[in-house]
From TrEMBL:
A GO MF term: 4 iron, 4 sulfur cluster binding
Keyword DNA damage applies: no
Cofactor: [4Fe-4S] cluster
Database matches in Gene3D superfamilies: Aldolase class I
Protein name (Swiss-Prot/TrEMBL): Radical SAM core domain-containing protein
Organism: Triticum turgidum subsp. durum (Durum wheat)
Domain Radical SAM core: 55-273
Keywords recorded for this protein, A-Z: 4Fe-4S, Cytoplasm, Iron, Iron-sulfur, Metal-binding, Methyltransferase, rRNA processing, S-adenosyl-L-methionine, Transferase
Amino acid sequence: MPEGLNKDLRKMISDHADLKALTVKDIITASDGTRKILFSLEDASVIETVVIPSARGRTTVCVSSQVGCAMNCQFCFTGRMGLRKHLSTAEIVEQAVFARKLFSDEFGSITNVVFMGMGEPLHNVDNVIKASSIMVDEQGLQFSPRKVTVSTSGLVPEIKRFLNESNCDLAVRNWIMPINRRYNLSTLLGTLREELRLRPKSIVLFEYVMLAGVNDSTDDAKRLMELVHGIPCKINLISFNPHSGSQFKPTPDESIIEFRNMLIQSGLTVMVRLSRGDDQMAACGQLGAPGDYQLPLLRVPEKFQVAL
Ligand code: SF4
């Protein structure tokens, strides 16, 4: 219970609220300054949160929304864990509160929040919508809605719900993900086209994880331009971060830049996210500890075997 509250208020809080806190278990510093915070939950499970400072004065906290993840995306270490449980609204918000408390002196204010840590945020949609609204509320953490981005692997019904109920930004990653079997790419893109037409000010961020020999050719760039045609969007090219057991190789940085230039020439807005914190398993797709039980890697389609 916080200090300085009067007796009646303390009683009212303890009668009506559950005050559970995350406990910092460890903080690991990568060679580029990225920090990975390991938090223990009440039941002793561990989640990971990453704080990423940048030279441009922007500091981003990447929060987790689940312990593990059910989606088993083939480029992602967290996916190997399977889903252990959803995080509560409080457990999600508190990661950003801790990031501010621990690092604001060193990095300046935390400017951005991304839901790109452990878990598929829209699989835990109730708590994620509540947590993101607390993050942008005047009485909450007061982030700008344009600085809070929820990332999904493509859960189509939950995307519609999120766009209806939240004013935060949406990012979509959709490739080599078993969820594509349920909601294929054309359903996903059709839904985004339709929903964003109703919200002329909204845009979506497509996160494109670049895998050597799999999706990084000139033809792939052309295909990507065609796929996103007519959708108000930005593209984020993400460099693949290898982990033990991963089947893919990263596209070299110079090829990522060539790919980016092709997209820019077609009029798209493109950002590149090169690896941050990868020497400490703090980079995108590297969080978590699968342990002995792991979800299986899927068979790689014939046409991509040559790239492995
Ligand atoms: S990329 Fe996201 S949705 Fe996919 S397995 Fe990893 S944590 Fe889950």
